[in-house]
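User: Hi! I'm a student and our assignment asks us to look at how structure tokens line up with a sequence. Could you show me two examples?

Assistant: Happy to help. In each example below, the sequence comes first and the structure tokens follow. Example one:
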Amino acid sequence: MRQQILVDMDGVLADVYAQLIIFEHRDSGIKLNIENMYGKTELEAFPSFEKHVRSKGFFRTAPLIPGSIEGLKYLNEKYNVLIVSSATEFPQSLNEKEEWLSEHFPFITWEQMIFCGRKDSIRGNIMIDDHPKNLSTFDGERYLFAQPHNMCVPDRNYHRVSGWQDIIRLL
């Protein structure tokens, strides 16, 4: 039986930082610099974070993380892949996330998509996530996908990956 791998959506497949920068510039004219966000939470880094993540179309139009299509295809051939997203925090995102995944990753079936509130009840052998809080309760092998909000988090109890090439190389 193949190992089960849990892959987060936002910050691992979908580039929410790029999307937040686009929305902030569109709405306020402010062009944010990603380097100034290192070590800050999304709430600290983006003045209109709550407004934007609750906006219609935010999740549906998010850009892809570079290499995510090829990387997820690779994992899907080797592992039992589940996409696990804390989508119920933003209820309007449920349809948008399903449509986004179906468009960009047509090889991922609806049965492989788990939209939840908390990830601690989902079981697997490996988890890839950009939030240490999700990895901290996971019993399997942990991979922290580098994003500005986790740049100052010490590399304990997980492997830090800087992108999809790292994931392919390690897994």
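Example two works the same way, sequence first and then tokens:
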Amino acid sequence: MSDNQEIVSITFFEYPKRNRWWAFNQMQKAVSPIRRVEGVSFFKLMGTGGGFGFSIKPDFGTYALLLVWKNADFARKYSESEIYKRFSQQCLSNFTYWMRCVQCQGSWNGKQPFAVTATAKSQEPLMVITRARVKILKIPRFLRFVPASSRSAERADGLLFTKGIGEWPAIEQATFSYWESQKQMEAFAYRSEHRKIILKVKKEGWYKEELFARFVPVSISGAQQNSEQT
């Protein structure tokens, strides 16, 4: 796998109560510094949900930073960047997932953010980002049905981690999930309550915009990967 290919990172920063107002304000104040990070072609700084997977209840203690790096050389400099130091100095802990895209359908704010640079095997680990902009008139339906999918995910075989992420509560929502294998992810997606909701979404046209992307995990030597969880 070439170091010249695009790579994606998503970091979850967990903040103590004394720094949560500071972290909330970074949703606006940190945008310009993130734009200055060398080698980043796309980014999103997002809040997270407080429940399992998707949740309408916000988690004011955890924020997610999604970065698309032009290549691995730029990615390795992440822990030395101004923006990483800005967040890590204020947080209790952080963890970064590194990945390469194997499939991407749809758009994010009118853009195709991820280039396909890898392939996946059914028995190997897989990461997934699903994102949607919900139509205003469909929000009540969205809030009524989607939490059922999160409850079914709690019982899903092979789910290692999941977190709801998003730019605006209820309107612009996304979920990041990490699975033991593609096979187990597809078993949940196509043979559970989640599948029923997807069919309802399509039939009733809930979304103004949506994106579905799959990734394989990779390791980046020299880049900040995690810190002790507290």
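Here is something you could point out in your write-up. The CA atoms of residues 15 and 61 lie 5 Å apart.
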